[in-house]
Amino acid sequence: MRQALAILLAALVLLASSDLAWSQEEILTWSVQPAALDVSAGGRALARVRIENTSAREADDIELVWVGPEGFSLDPAPASVAVLAPFASTAVEITVAATSSAPQGEVRGSLEAIYTYCIDDLCYQIVAPVVLTLRVAPSTGPTAGVPVDVGTLANGEIEVPGRVPWSAVALGAVVLLLGVPGLLWRRTRHLPALVALLVIAGGVALGFGVSLDQHKQAQAVGAVLCTSCVGIETVQTLSPRLSAAQAAAVERLTTPVELLVFYAPWCRSCPYAEELVALVAAHNGLVRYRLVNAEVERDLAAQHGVTRAGRTVVPAIVHLGTGKVLFGAEDLGHRLVSLLQEAS
Amino acid sequence: MRITTGRRAVQGMGVVLGLFGVTGIGMTHILFPGLHCYACPWAITVCPVGLVQNLVIFGTVPFFWVGAMIVYGVVAARGFCGWFCPFGTLNDLLSFRRVRIRSSLSYGKFVILLGTLVGAWALTDTVFCKLCPAASLEASLPYLFLGVAKVNGPFLIHMATLGATLLGMVLIARFWCRYLCPMGAILALFNRVSLLHLEWNGAECTGCETCIDACPMGIDPRQEHDGHNCIKCGACTESCVPNSLRLRCGLRKAP
């Protein structure tokens, strides 16, 4: 038993001290509701910015600031979000105020989201653009109506509904069911205390893990299949290259091509697929693409057949014209160029 | 009802839970109390061994994982190997040769567990998953037929580990569970305190040793029923004529 506990302790110390040398990257995704915000000159309108942490890192001090154009501001300034736990989401209300001289018609507003995240002692400050479409009407006197139901969400508050999954509730019930007999039944001198201690420790660990959204992290890891992670193919770590013949084939394309590149933030071969598509697009302006986080946009993944038996598979490249899907990163350059040639 | 009949029913439930994704239910938050690959197209639960490697890579302190493992450990510990794990069930079905266990080799599963964690930390990769025979069977092969996997180097490595493990299972009952399973190693940490446990009454024992012959793990259940190799399957209790070995659920009697 001592050996077993020593192994467990060593494993926990190892886990607690482990880290990954991540490069600086955006870990939050943003969406603004409504997609187009109606506001009259001299008036105000409310919108809701939904923020989702797609990483296992904690995001800190999240602030939204107005960048432009002139004639608009965030008034009052939205409250900052002090902490957004890994894989958690939240929403922030913003009030866009338009001056009487604000440009009218459809205006593209720009905000900047500023936040930090740390890997041990190394912290990064990220400045990410957030775009907002404004439909500015002439002044109508009183403030224009509020076009979005912001519900009861307070600035920066974690959304409570749906945070506690039924599986964790079930496990908590098991812990309780075991804990009560464990505390009361004293047929042996030390064992009941040990069992009770374990049950309490397990319950606390489970509860704390759920409060950190680690159950969602577990689900996210399981829900998306990374082809290089379970040994379906080898990890592609080198930057992709096109041969002269492949580059020439891409340059000869004469019809527009639209591609969707599905990835997961933790997938180790996905950067290869992303870079490859960017490389192809750089060779021919008719090739356009969009990166899609498969963890966030699961419906889109299902809609485009990036799933197999219900599991989203990454990396995956969808050719929107033909609907064909390329999975994985192995030999992807050859497969992608062949697909583009067939489709043109 | 004989224990074996009940155990087969529970093992069947383990397989059903493992493949419940055929109903269209997506991935849940539940960690599977056994070795079952979350990459299996029909899995709805997360493999604890696969997950903990990812958590090591992410640098996450795995509170949820530890909590779940403690719960499973307190409930049945390695009883999940004997009663629920689908890969354990496969081991069970291929248990033709019930030879005695090599005790020193049985620590191999702890070495594999540590190697799995260290490998994930040092190589920032889910190394064990790429060798795991359960992943070979439950992910590599299905995805080959679903058009995602190809016959390439990683696939052949998977098939090699699967083939070797199957051969080991045929030659030695519960070969994987005895010597190599990291999930079994995690659950084994709780084997002395789990509510599901074996009791042996020495006063009633006639010393016939039929329990040793019956044990698929090749241990002496009279002496080692609290050790890390007992999977609490109850085979020994069925073979015990004087009924000195019993499978119990609850806190243990005072020694």
Summarize the structure.
The complex is a heterodimer of chains A (344) and B (255). Chain A is an alpha+beta fold.
Provide the residue-averaged pLDDT of chain B. Answer: 92
CATH topology name of the largest domain in chain A: Immunoglobulin-like
Helix content of chain A: 25-40%
State mean pLDDT of chain A (0 to 100 scale): 75
| Number of distinct beta strands of chain A | 16
Write down the oligomeric state. heterodimer
Q: What fraction of residues of chain B sit in β-strands? A: under 5%
The separation of the N and C termini of chain B measures: 29 Å
Percent of residues in beta strands of chain A: 25-35%
Q: Compute the number of helices of chain B.
A: 13
Please tell me about this protein's structure.
- The complex is a heterodimer of chains A (344) and B (255).
- Chain A has 344 residues and is of the alpha+beta class.
- Chain A folds into three domains: 28-137, Immunoglobulins (Immunoglobulin-like); 164-212; 244-343, Glutaredoxin.
- In chain A, 31% of the residues lie in helices and 32% in strands.
- Chain A contains eight helices and 16 strands.
- In chain A, strands 2-9-8-4-6 form a five-stranded mixed β-sheet, with no helix packed on it. In chain A, strands 1-3-7-5 form a four-stranded antiparallel β-sheet, with no helix packed on it. In chain A, strands 12-11-15-16 form a four-stranded mixed β-sheet, with helices on one face.
- In chain A, strand 8 (105-119) and strand 9 form a beta hairpin.
- The longest helix of chain A has 21 residues, at 191-211.
- Chain B is mainly alpha-helical and 255 residues long.
- Chain B has a domain at 3-91 and 103-188.
- In chain B, 50% of the residues lie in helices and 4% in strands.
- Chain B has 13 helices and two strands; from the N terminus they run H-H-H-H-H-H-H-H-H-H-E-H-H-H-E.
- Chain B has a two-stranded antiparallel ribbon.
- Chain B starts with a helix and ends in a 6-residue tail after the last strand.
- The chains are: A alpha+beta (344), B mainly alpha (255).
